[in-house]
Amino acid sequence: MNVRLSTPRRLATIAIALTMALPSLTACGDDEPSSSDPNAPVTLTWWHNGAQDPGKSVWQGIADEYSKAHPNVKFQVEPTQNEALKTKISVALQSPTPPNIFQQWGGGALATQVESGKLYDMTADTKDWISSMGASAQGWAVDGKQYGIPYDLHVVGFWYRKDLFEQAGIAAPPKTMTEFNDAVTKLKAKGITPVSLGGKDKWPDAFWWSYFAIRECSLDVLKNTVKSLKMDDACFVKAGEDLKKLIDSKPFQDAFLGTPAQQGAGSSAGLVANGKAAMELQGDWELPTMIPLTEDKDYAKKLSWFPFPEVEGGKGTPGTALGGGDGFSCSVKGGAACADFLKYIASTEVQTKLVTSNTATLPANPAAISAIQDPSLKTVQEALNKAPYIQVYFDQALPTSVGQALNDAIADFFAGKGSPQGIVDAFNKAVANK
């Protein structure tokens, strides 16, 4: 399949989903850019989540290369582990000194950040080139103003060990939940942990409930819920009931509630990378994330990927996927120099480097898609291309406080607290208190 031909739809579906929940906002605050001249001497503080190699070294190299071509621009690069970074950014945006450049996931969370008045409006700086990114860049805009730039796109599905599936006599990846449950039974019979889960970090839990909601709810319901902030359709309670059946089947490793998602060989990613579990529901980023978690240099050859199975009787549109993207925003004091650096990151040259170095998997710039070489990632890219709609992670699509409340309720549910209705109630309560 020529993935380039499907790129416009791939970009458009993510952009539509990301922009569904963006309210009309007026930024406040009196911060001023350090300079409107991109050639003025400046040191840019840059926070990103590439805390491990290859990302850590690659991002530093990109900063160094940009500085070499722009001697007036220096960088203070501060890599931070993903979960810690989200908290760090939230605190910084409430302070007088946020970083000049910081990781940005777009959607409703971006709209919430814009309210702080600390984000730089780079609309004028990007008008001559933003169209090269396709529709995906809309997910990093609020009220038609550009407040960030994506560098990669994501879709969530199952990474699985082909060797462990073969040992359990599973001939093909499951396409329905009935087939999935059958695969879990076969893996258990062989003494293999069917699914790893990083419950300590909560957001992996949310992937499960979100996918059940996507399979049980129609597209109209999903879109209207994110836009109106009203979760009143019975399909959301049904999603919780589906999740309860899954949890009761005990597909996860022991002590999954205390397992981190990506830190160490014993993380949920590490368990799959080291052949200790057969599957993990995670994003396309998981393949390079596993590099420092295993000594097996051939682990990628033992892995493949399949989309979340369809739920029999569900009202969801088949093929709809859960996803999003990564990008960067500039603080007001980062100004034009920061915006010019993000233009460099969005270039075909840098996007290709991100893909070939395993720092990014599915590039936001369509011109760099041809750099994808791993067979499994090509499968993910094709699934993303074919998806009729990409539902952005609910915690990202929704206002920050609402998304966090939803994640917390889902995590509590995995821990045996609450009910399917309770997850919905937590959402509605957070909206009322927003």
UniProtKB/TrEMBL annotation:
Q: Which residues form the signal peptide?
A: 1-29
InterPro entries per the UniProt record, alphabetical: Bact_solute-bd_prot1, SBP
Query: Which keywords belong to this entry?
Result: Signal
Instruction: Give a yes or no for keyword Signal in this entry.
Output: yes
Q: Which Pfam families match?
A: SBP_bac_1 (PF01547)
* Native organism: Dactylosporangium sucinum
Name of this chain's protein: Sugar ABC transporter substrate-binding protein
